[in-house]
Design goal:
By secondary structure, the protein is mostly helical. It has 14 helices and 3 strands. It starts with a helix and ends in a 10-residue tail after the last helix. This is Integrase.
Length: 336
């Protein structure tokens, strides 16, 4: 083909809105394209429980607006408009960040749906509208490590007020010792306790499993709690006095109560995740980045650079850091 012919072909493709790369793509076989309502229902049944819990609110919003439209109909501009609408109409709370998180979650929820649509051959990767919408830039987190005096105040209030101070004190100690997330604590079962080695098995986000050292004192309280409150071996460990399993609402109640006694807690919107920041900051300052990373349960490549492959900390190092943190010997700790 001559140069003039090539140029003419390029001009024709340009007018038709087709890129040369698209000519080499395998065409997606045409077939009945489901509605957004129908397809989101299918995707919801296919994703992990944690993903469904995060995205469900935003999927329901999408179904309200576009439920009867076909999956391949919404455009990037429409997704952007819907994200801005969600951002402007989000429920304003004390810790609100201008609706950025809501807009980000909406786009993430749609990206999840359209990833499945691409995999199912309903649209091509090039026609995925959600990937062409940028997420709002995240603001720096306002969470930080708490000083010892403030942490002592929180523990004092939790252990001397409320309808179950024993439960709340143990809950706080569990998070302070392990730096676990709420999901890890709520998913803890009696069969996840290794009493001989003072280890607990945590199931956290991303369906990750890890063994985390705890102090002998905390282990004794966890075992006693499970026995006294009737936790089945494979059932949830943390329970109310009546034997009913606690939910995330217990955390809301706990921090609201603490905030009433300690105004700075309410003003700064201190939450359980602040305890994770506090513990991991202390571990990093005293035992280094590698131990803090392992202590946090961060194993993904996105958490650090390639160097992290060569500086992984083991369970003994985590136990040693815990022993120093709690002032109690641990079966797996080594002399440092």
């Amino acid at each position: 083909m001559k140069g003039d012919d090539i140029e003419a072909a390029r001009l024709l493709l340009s007018r038709l809105g087709i890129s040369p790369e698209q000519l080499f793509k395998t065409p997606v076989e045409s077939g009945p394209v489901p509605t957004i309502r129908d397809y989101i229902g299918r995707v919801s049944d296919a994703v992990p429980v944690g993903t469904r819990r995060v995205y469900d609110t935003y999927w329901r919003r999408v179904v309200e607006v576009w439920g009867d439209r076909r999956v391949d109909e919404p455009t990037p501009l429409e997704i952007k408009q819907l994200a801005e609408h969600v951002k402007l109409n989000v429920v304003v709370r004390k810790n609100s960040r201008g609706g950025r998180t809501a807009a980000e979650h909406l786009i993430s929820a749609l990206r999840c749906v359209y990833r499945h649509a691409v995999a199912d051959g309903l649209i091509s990767e090039n026609d995925n509208p959600a990937t062409r919408v940028a997420k709002p830039r995240r603001l720096a987190s306002s969470r930080r490590a708490l000083p010892d005096t403030r942490l002592a105040e929180i523990n004092r209030v939790a252990g001397s007020t409320g309808n179950d101070p024993e439960l709340d004190s143990m809950l706080l100690r569990l998070h302070i010792e392990t730096a676990c997330r709420r999901g890890g604590a709520l998913g803890l079962r009696p069969k996840d306790l290794d009493t001989e080695q003072c280890l607990i098995r945590l199931q956290e986000k991303g369906e990750t499993l890890r063994w985390q050292p705890v102090s002998p004192t905390l282990m004794l309280h966890l075992v006693a709690h499970a026995e006294q409150r009737g936790a089945a071996e494979a059932g949830q460990l943390l329970r109310y006095r009546n034997g009913r399993a606690i939910t995330a609402r217990r955390y809301d109640y706990l921090w609201q109560r603490i905030g009433k006694h300690l105004p700075w807690v309410a003003t700064q919107q201190v939450s359980t995740h602040w305890l994770r920041h506090t513990t991991l900051t202390w571990v990093e300052r005293n035992f280094g980045y590698a131990v803090a990373r392992a202590y946090a349960g961060h194993n993904g490549k996105s958490d650090a650079g390639t160097t992290s492959t060569y500086v992984r900390a083991d369970l003994q190092e985590i136990a040693t850091a815990l022993a120093a943190l709690t002032g109690e010997p641990h079966p797996l700790a080594t002399d440092r």
